[in-house]
Specification:
Low-confidence stretches: 1-5, 10-21
Pfam families: ADH_N, ADH_zinc_N
Shape: globular
Order of helices and strands: EEEEHEEEHEEEEHHEHEHEHEHEHEHEH
Largest sheet: 7 strands, mixed
GO molecular function: all-trans-retinol dehydrogenase (NAD+) activity; zinc ion binding
Mean pLDDT: 91
Number of helices: 11
Bound molecules: nicotinamide-adenine-dinucleotide, zinc ion
Cofactor: Zn(2+)
Structural class: alpha/beta
Protein name: Enoyl reductase (ER) domain-containing protein
Number of strands: 18
InterPro entries: ADH-like_C, ADH-like_N, ADH_Zn_CS, GroES-like_sf, NAD(P)-bd_dom_sf
Helix content: 10-25%
Distance between the termini: 16 Å
Radius of gyration: 20 Å
Length: 384
């Protein structure tokens, strides 16, 4: 399943869900790996201590949802997928102090507990309480809040936004500006910061630099926007789906390459185009081959930075000649743009409200939640 961008889904049901536990009618469950999503009624428990129950307003589809559904990222099933979401706090568990009912919030795949070694370090953002590597699909106490037909349902990355209501840990909730349009800012829950931050915050693209972006889906497009905003002089965009090229050009890509149509390997073409290789190369697909052979080899031998954003299948191995990096290249990875999520993501929402960053070009379709199947069909078809 090759897929695409940020197709948003909105719950259509306007019921008031104040009962406890909550019975949510529109929830997408994947009963097993690689199976179609099934729309089910579920029971959702109230939030426990340190947890927040959220009425979901908008969600978007990210490449990582596809990975988890097809099993290339480990996850337990049955599962409610979706992690890129915006919603309104419905109730809070004991001890929750950073949000209250009625607050607009984003769900966070990378939490920020503000206590662990990663959170306390000034660099990096990969909080030890994350549930990505590996993904248990359970809350911090080892249980799930969802049941369906008497069965426990796992939560994707401890979020599960393809649901009318969800429960997430407080450390995975970012309170955002009341004025934020939820159908837009849900992209700031994952895709936009993942791509934008990879370039501006982690790799720190410099003015006048040369860049190549492998994969021009939602994440790659956010990388392109960031390279452009950072003043890159040349941005090469690479994708096997040429339908991605028109938007990429509008966002700032100066040269579009389809590797399937080139006579030479794409990395060789990139090196020839730039003389010595690019300053910054970004992998936004999630394939081992593109990381090593395309992305790393496109970088300047002496100082090029190869930034991995795409999530390659779990257990896949990178195999590279040791001398590939000894010349000075950097191979690095980043999650959620390296942003300490609860500190930084609300500011990105404010930046959007102040027209400092744009999200609109990343939105390809807007559909009601009960058309989630159609949304995934469009996604797999690479449509925009
Ligand atoms: P996407 O499916 O929308 O985009 C992937 C793009 O890659 C598509 O345009 C596709 O046509 C293109 N592609 C596929 N194979 C290719 C090839 N061989 N050569 C060139 N292009 C190819 O996915 P997305 O939502 O943009 O996510 C991209 C990757 O980033 C995924 O692996 C996802 O899991 C990962 N991701 C990482 C983070 C992070 O924080 N590190 C966050 C979100 C998503
Ligand atoms: Zn932490």
């Amino acid at each position: 399943m090759e897929c695409d961008d940020n197709i948003q889904c909105f719950p259509t049901c306007g019921n008031s869900w104040t009962l406890s536990p909550t019975a949510g009618k529109i929830n997408a469950i994947a009963w097993k790996r690689n199976s179609p999503l099934s729309i089910e009624e579920v029971q959702l428990e109230p939030p426990k201590a340190g947890e927040v129950r959220i009425k979901m307003t908008s969600s978007a589809i990210c490449g990582s949802d596809n990975h988890i559904l097809k099993g290339s990222l480990p996850g337990n099933f049955p599962l409610i997928p979706g992690h890129e979401g915006a919603g309104i706090v419905e109730s809070t568990g004991e001890g929750v102090s950073s949000v209250k009912p009625g607050d607009k919030v984003l769900t966070l795949v990378v939490p920020q507990c503000r206590e662990c070694n990663s959170c306390l370090a000034p660099k990096g953002n990969f909080c030890e309480k994350q549930d990505i590597l590996p993904s248990s699909g359970l809350m911090l106490d080892g249980t799930s809040r969802f049941t369906c037909k008497g069965q426990e349902i796992y939560q994707a990355f401890r979020t599960s936004t393809f649901a009318e209501y969800t429960v997430v840990p407080e450390i995975a909730v970012a309170k955002i500006d009341d004025a934020a349009p939820m159908d837009k800012v849900c992209l700031l829950s994952c895709g936009m910061p993942a791509g934008y931050g990879a370039a501006v915050h982690s790799a720190k693209v410099t003015p006048g630099s040369t860049c190549v972006v492998f994969g021009l889906g939602g994440i790659g497009s956010a990388v392109v926007m960031a390279c452009k905003a950072s003043g890159a002089s040349r941005i090469i965009g690479v994708d096997i789906n040429e339908e991605k090229f028109p938007r990429a050009r509008v966002l700032g890509v100066t040269d579009c390459l389809n590797p399937w149509k080139l006579k030479e390997p794409v990395q060789q073409v990139v090196v020839e185009m730039t003389g010595f290789g690019v300053d910054f190369a970004f992998e936004a697909i999630g394939l081992v081959e593109t990381v090593v052979y395309c992305c790393l080899e496109s970088c300047h031998l002496s100082y090029g930075i190869c930034q991995i954003i795409g999530l390659a299948p779990s257990n896949s191995q990178l195999s590279l000649e040791a001398l590939m990096v000894v010349s000075g290249r950097t191979l690095k990875g980043v999650c959620l743009g390296g942003y300490k999520t609860r500190d930084c993501i609300p500011q990105l929402v404010t930046d959007y409200l102040q027209n400092k960053i744009n999200l609109d070009p990343l939105i390809t379709h807007q559909l009601p939640f009960d058309q989630l199947h159609k949304a995934f069909k469009l996604y797999h078809a690479g449509k925009r």
